[in-house]
Write a structure and sequence with these properties.
The structure is a homodimer. By secondary structure, the first copy, chain A, is an alpha/beta fold. Chain A has 8 helices and 9 strands. Chain A starts with 9 loop residues before the first helix and ends in a 9-residue tail after the last helix.
Chain lengths: 225, 225
């Protein structure tokens, strides 16, 4: 069921969670079947794109009937690796790190942050029920707990050094919340949460809207001059 | 210079910041010209894709010479709306909100968070030099300061109500850091920071890597049994 030719493009991977979210909410309403057109209409995409994206899961839709909804949802979860939980260590328990530690929604997406590390651990020693250890314990605990995934939430200036420490300890996949672009060996997975990409879309749309506003009302409101 | 036919696709917008980051670092090294091939090689894309993406800026590369580097960098910034600063209000001064308020890097991307609002404002009344106001002051300050952009960092359960309050106050663009999908009028811009998308890419790659690991070493290490 999980066979597919060649690697799946990242844009497809990024769209799968929104299909899954929709399928799970339809399932909660009692629906049992779904077509590409239903998904496409609800998400403002083309049915062709949806069909292409879903092909990677290996689930086959039947003509005029569509997909079995629960089967498709489970297949997407499996394909994304969300049916198994990845245990992760977080490094950098500042404001952002604390926010990530406190968020309970990651478990539904296969991520369980089991502990955190910091150069200056909170004297209380825990945040949201997760223990905060000093950095000196990282390597030992990575080995003992067999952790492969690290969440990097340190200040940008420390990002490279801390990433190297994580990799040396045995972590081979990093979810990078810093703006730093990490230089790592090709066998290390790095996924950047790049807020600049998101800001690019937002500020371009705002600039377009501002231009439209001036076309509609080119002169300032006289009551405010 | 900023003319282009039709709307620019979001994937192009998301790629522009990485071109800009690279151009600025090359400019700092003293380079004055750049070709699509240089950019493509450095970023692991095709030159055709880079040429297409850059077309939206209106800057024309010359055959065999390429682009004037500073001109291209300025044109991308202008196109993204990063040459002008958008002042924004942040709502929700919890851990995530505090992290966003404390981050100084957004100004380079045209975003200046000038104040924050919370139902339970910090008694100190400020974080990172930015004042925290009670929610009751939002509408008045949005009007007085002419703010159009809001950063939403409240808990998921409060997201819909708070977004409606922001929109009623006059905010028409929301950078949404909550997992909630906001239902808003079509004239309101919403850009979601969807960590599930990023996790989808990360956990799929991890699952693939785990599968490879088992293909290479199908039996457990006998020294550990």
């Amino acid at each position: 069921m999980a066979t597919h030719p060649g690697p799946v493009p990242a844009p497809t991977l990024r769209r799968l969670p929104s299909y899954l979210r929709l399928l799970r909410s339809w399932q909660a309403e009692g629906r049992t079947g779904v077509s590409c057109t239903h998904l496409a209409d609800a998400l403002g995409q083309t049915a062709t794109q949806v069909r292409k994206d879903l092909a990677c899961t290996g689930v086959i839709g039947r003509p005029k009937v569509g997909y079995d909804l629960p089967e498709l949802a489970v297949a997407i979860e499996k394909f994304l690796g969300w049916s198994k939980t990845n245990e992760a260590f977080l490094v950098g328990a500042g404001h952002l790190g604390t926010a990530l530690l406190s968020y309970s929604g990651f478990k539904a997406h296969g991520l369980d942050i089991v502990a955190a590390f910091d150069i200056a651990p909170n004297p209380r020693g825990e945040i949201g029920g997760k223990q905060i250890f000093p950095m000196s314990k990282l390597a030992d605990l990575v080995r003992r707990m067999g952790i492969h995934l690290g969440v990097l939430a340190v200040p940008e200036a420390a990002a490279h050094d801390v990433a190297q420490t994580m990799i040396a300890a045995g972590i081979d996949a990093i979810w990078n919340f810093t703006p730093a672009r990490l230089l790592v060996a090709p066998n290390i997975i790095v996924e950047n949460v790049d807020l600049a990409q998101s800001l690019a879309v937002l500020s371009h749309k705002l600039a377009e809207k501002r231009a439209q506003r001036w076309q509609v009302a080119p002169s300032p409101d006289p009551t405010h001059t």
